[in-house]
């Protein structure tokens, strides 16, 4: 297992205590190294032949830095290294795991694929970003409704997705969903 991140400046830095942007500037690779405890490489250096699969976590980092979904929605652009990495794994017929908001990367790059970001309706207030499912459909992909503790496997494209924090749920349920995604990716590897 190796961890990679693009060597780019973050779109913005958020003070999570206050919930608002700051004037501070940070680099995605440097910030990712902090989270990964230093064991990380530039995404531009990833060689698909050395790995059996790739998994992208989600969160605002994906929506703001790996692509511009947070600002542009379905009209977003995807970072060139993220795009080429996903294209390379797909072309090599190696599994791709995506959770939280990162399934939009597949929806943007692989027309016709199947993904989940949870539900397409805000059921009991648990899915406040349910409109993401319709944006995925507008991109020509199929959104599959799943609960937070489940994942969806698009066998034709070897893409496994789960909604994670796209659902307001207890952490153990989110953990279970991510666990099923990882297990399904490993089965396809």
Automatic annotation (TrEMBL):
SUPFAM superfamilies: Class I glutamine amidotransferase-like (SSF52317). InterPro entries: Class_I_gatase-like. Signal peptide: none annotated. Gene3D superfamilies: 3.40.50.880. It comes from the Eukaryota. This is GAL3A protein. It comes from Charadrius vociferus (Killdeer).
């Amino acid at each position: 297992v190796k961890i990679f991140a693009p060597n780019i400046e973050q779109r913005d830095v958020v003070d999570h205590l206050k919930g608002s942007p700051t004037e501070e500037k940070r680099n995605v690779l440097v910030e990712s190294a902090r989270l990964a405890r230093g064991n990380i490489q530039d995404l531009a250096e990833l060689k698909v032949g050395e790995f059996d699969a790739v998994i992208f976590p989600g969160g605002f980092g994906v929506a703001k830095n790996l692509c511009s979904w947070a600002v542009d929605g379905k009209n977003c652009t995807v970072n060139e290294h993220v795009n080429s990495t996903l294209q390379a794994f797909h072309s090599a017929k190696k599994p791709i795991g995506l959770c939280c908001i990162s399934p939009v990367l597949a929806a943007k790059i692989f027309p016709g694929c199947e993904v989940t970001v949870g539900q397409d309706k805000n059921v009991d207030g648990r899915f406040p970003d349910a409109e993401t499912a319709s944006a995925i459909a507008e991109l020509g992909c199929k959104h599959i409704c799943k609960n937070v503790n489940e994942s969806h496997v698009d066998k034709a494209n070897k893409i496994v997705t789960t909604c994670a924090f796209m659902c307001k749920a207890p952490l153990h349920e989110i953990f279970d969903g991510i666990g099923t995604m990882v297990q399904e990716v490993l089965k396809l590897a």
